[in-house]
Amino acid sequence: MHNLYVSLGSNLGDREQMIRQALALLDERVGVVERVSSFIETEPWGFQSQHPFLNAAALVYTMLSPRRCLLETQQIERELGRTKKSVDGQYHDRPIDIDLLLYDDLHVEEKGLTLPHPHMQERDFVMIPLREILPSE
């Protein structure tokens, strides 16, 4: 069993319900959602919008490979209404965003998949919920 940490965010529609739906689908398709952080409201990062985000982090126990986890989370995003991904720093409003943050202690640099997530340290909306569910050392 592998420890997968993910970040979830939503700034369109019923944000809390959207994150809860994503968590249910993660539990169904990726692995056991073992721990979920508090939900925090944050301003959009990297673009202007009148719609604030709701963000959370989760620990998922999974048997899937990192690449398979990525494919499953992207499918969940599409099913929940996300029509386009952010590319080259061009961000936009979205009903759901699921990012893979950490997968055990693995370091991966492949096309479309980098672990640990390369920008997580600079984003409080990721780190605050993540720190809440990381094991204490």
Description of the structure:
This protein has 137 residues and is α+β, with helices and mostly antiparallel strands. It has a single domain, classed as 7,8-Dihydro-6-hydroxymethylpterin-pyrophosphokinase HPPK (Alpha-Beta Plaits). It contains three helices and seven strands, in the order βαβββαβββα. It has helices spanning 15-29, 66-79, 124-133; strands at residues 2-10, 31-36, 40-42, 53-62, 97-103, 108-110, 113-115. The strands form two sheets. Strands 1, 2, 3, 4 and 5 form a five-stranded antiparallel sheet that branches. The protein has a two-stranded antiparallel ribbon with strand order 6-7. Helix 1 (15-29) crosses helix 2. It is globular and about 40 Å long.
Structure summary:
The chain is an alpha+beta fold.
